[in-house]
Amino acid sequence: MLPLLVYLVGQLVVGPYEGGRGIxxxxxxxxxxxxxxxxxxxxxxxxxxxxxxxxxGLRRVSGHNPPASNRAADAEQKES
Length: 80
Fold this sequence. Notes:
By secondary structure, this protein is an all-alpha fold. Helix content is 79%, strand content 0%. It has one domain. The N and C termini lie far apart (46 Å).
């Protein structure tokens, strides 16, 4: 999904993709970069998961979202 959004924004901001074959060429170049071990390709593809993990970690550290085991224990205490 993110490569598609990057492609569309790039079309609007920079202009047509010069790698040829449009969106398929763009996505193909990203996956080729993954196979070559390019950091930029890996960051593009993994960034949604990395952001989600960072967000969850920050919520856990801040105490805003307690672990599920604590919520279950709190629910049991309320029922007693």
